[in-house]
Amino acid sequence: MMNQIIETIHIDRLVKNFAKAPHKVGDTHESDAEIIDLGKGVPNYLAVTTDALVEEVSSGLYDDPYFIGWMLAMSNFSDLAAVGADPLGLLLSVSYPSNGKNRFAERFAKGVSKACEMLETYVIGGDTNHGEEPLFSATAVGLVPKRSILTRMGASVKDRLYLSHPAGLGNVYAFLKMSRMNVRLPGMLYKPMARIKEGKLLRYFASSCMDTSDGVLHAVDTLMRLNTSQFALSSDWARICHPMAYRMCRFKSIPPWLALAGIHGEFELVFTVKPQRESRFLEAASKIGWDPILIGEVRQGQGITIKNTNGNVPLDTTAIRNLSEQAGRDAQSYIRQLVQIAKETGIA
Amino acid sequence: MMNQIIETIHIDRLVKNFAKAPHKVGDTHESDAEIIDLGKGVPNYLAVTTDALVEEVSSGLYDDPYFIGWMLAMSNFSDLAAVGADPLGLLLSVSYPSNGKNRFAERFAKGVSKACEMLETYVIGGDTNHGEEPLFSATAVGLVPKRSILTRMGASVKDRLYLSHPAGLGNVYAFLKMSRMNVRLPGMLYKPMARIKEGKLLRYFASSCMDTSDGVLHAVDTLMRLNTSQFALSSDWARICHPMAYRMCRFKSIPPWLALAGIHGEFELVFTVKPQRESRFLEAASKIGWDPILIGEVRQGQGITIKNTNGNVPLDTTAIRNLSEQAGRDAQSYIRQLVQIAKETGIA
User: Fold this and answer.
1) Could you report the per-residue pLDDT of A112-128, keeping only the tens digit for each?
2) CA triple B23-B25-B27, angle to 5 deg
3) Going edge to edge, which strands form the sheet with A303-308?
4) Chain B contact present for A10, CB below 8 A
5) Hey, which end of chain A has fewer CB within 10 Å, N or C?
């Protein structure tokens, strides 16, 4: 089922050229970060992930250097959060023009630094280059106990589907930014946090997990495909969507769930919990001051459904996800087509 | 002394924004790869490094996708070699235009794959993006025994200075390529290997080590500055320079040591060995079929000297290294000025 997704096809085409490392745990697509066995006697796996900001910068979606630094760090740590890892730190691989742009470098560094501080972790290395074209790539490394590994695999029928916190602000940010309604958004509205603390709890309780960096629906859809079952979403959007995302959608007469369907997410976690572990999980979450949001359940069958007054309506997530291939190139057309798909489903 | 070097100033300006990680071993500049303590009871340190190809690609120095892949992998593994690490694998962070360039992606992947195969290691993950501007960044991770850590620090007076294999081909490649003498160079002439096998031996024998990715002189100069002593080079270039580099310089009437002075190196290792360990080191090297090249010794004092008929001639390596700041932008002028400096020293 994964091979219906254009992005997956692109990745597989590259990956087929590479031999599989014997010390790598799991296959491509099966976890947000790579899980590496460091050998017998070592109690932890190494979790490592790399993520670059490309379309986000070239499209103008991210234009503030502090924000670019923040997002670069958070996007990498979010992948560690989704495998339940404790971060060891971040390596930067960056390039920008050297002439007079020292203020850019400084503000960028401060964004990275603040993000690391918020997560109680560090920049541990990097490579700086100078070139006309900006380059913002990073790698996060961490450790996860071998006994409590968390991946995208392991959801099964009757599992409860959760979201770490209300979501959808990422898409609202992108919508406003690409609509040129430039109201000094970053910092004010949208400054997402990687859910490291939550991930460290989830490694003991969740059966599968993925971050929402490409949107909530994208994460739910990937878990559905990898675990070949039906993921049924509830539709009380006022509870699932971030209040600001919910109000913005209502104000614009857009179905609120589109804030979860767009490709520009945030760093929440979508995860499943076995029903018999649910009460203990919620108790443990409550102890760290965390109130996870139940958004649905895993059922027999396939695909994504959304509950509305007519029962469970199937959603063509393949079409929605493949639409996102053009999001970086033509944001206006992407949003238009997304709204069109939403209208056709009849889900309000 | 490090703060005389423009590149170092740039890095320090960025690094000063970041808090130092308590589990990071050593300071910035002190090793080719970052050394991370994974906690008590774990016998190895994690070695991790990130390196992007920016100027090399934008200047046209690297234009063959297979070669770009090869160099991206080797440059990262070379940093692991210089700290004596066993590689666990490579993560790629790449971006290129998506339309029709699948052959590019495939050839690039094959270059990476072959490089990994040659070093008996693997691609373990990555991030693929699509954008107009190419992006080639990678991260290599490995392990090094805590008992036998190898860094740039630890050289002292009377240490013997070695080079892993004859060098200088990197600069000859760059010279020919930038002079538009395009004789289908990559693969034929210049396909440098990271010295992983050698590094794994050096972690038991060397007192300091650095790779020659920015040239041999750059590495010797950095070791000199970090260990505050004089590094005296011998001048039998026919033995130190790669035969093809030596002949090319003679043919062009350029002093052969300029092949070691330019900024475009290869992946050899420059290292120091304590005199009392030298014979056991050479014996161990011989057993793995390796013949390291003695290129000088560490003395009391400061700076780099080159032995010629007039004794030990001091070399203004600060000027040579800072000249390289313009190498990516104006290769012709860089080479001209390098030759000029060489003439002024009188070292043939």
Assistant:
1) 999 999 999 999 999 98
2) 115
3) A206-211, A269-273, A160-163, A293-299, A230-233, A303-308, A311-315
4) yes
5) C
Closest CA to B142 of B78, B213, B52: B78
Q: Which amino acid is at A57?
A: V
> B280 φ, ψ to 5°?
-70, -35
Q: Which of residues 254-273 of B touch A (CB under 8 A)?
A: none
In this structure, what token pair is assigned to residue B125? 């993950």
**Cα A262 versus chain centre, distance:** 12
Count other Cβ atoms within 10 Å, centred on residue A139.
Answer: 30
What the block records as the tokens of B295 is: 């290129």
Nearest-CB residue to A105 (from B13, B39, B50): B13
Q: Which residues contact B193 (CB under 8 A, 6 or more apart)?
A: B74, B118, B119, B267
The DSSP output letter for B195 is -
Q: Comparing C-alpha atoms, which of B209, B215, B101 is closest to residue B160?
A: B209
**Interfacial A residues in 128-187 facing B (CB < 8 Å):** 128-133, 135, 137, 139, 141, 143
pLDDT digits (tens, 9 = 90+) for B125-163: 999 888 788 899 999 999 999 999 999 999 999 999 999
User: Quick one: three-class SS letters along A196-216?
Assistant: HHHHHHHHHHEEEEEECCCCH
A330 inside 8 A of chain B by CB = no
Mind giving me the DSSP string for A227-239? TTSEEEEP--HHH
Q: What is the dihedral of CA A170, A171, A177, A182, to 10 degrees?
A: -70
Cβ-based neighbours of A319, under 8 Å, separated by 6 or more: A341
| DSSP, residue by residue, A57-112 | HHTTSS--HHHHHHHHHHHHHHHHHTTTPEEEEEEEEEE---SSTHHHHHHHHHHH
Which H helix or E strand runs over B210? Answer: strand B206-211
- Spatial strand order of the sheet with B86-95 comes to B24-25, B34-37, B44-52, B135-145, B86-95, B123-129
Q: How far apart are CA A196 and CA A290, in angstroms?
A: 12
Answer whether 0.80 is exceeded by the pTM.
yes
- Given the cut 0.90, state whether the ipTM is greater than it: yes
Greatest alpha-carbon span in chain A: 61
Pair of tokens at residue B247: 């002949």
Alpha-carbon distance values, B154 to A73, B86, B145, B224 (Å): 34, 21, 17, 11
Distance CA A216, CA A197 (A): 19
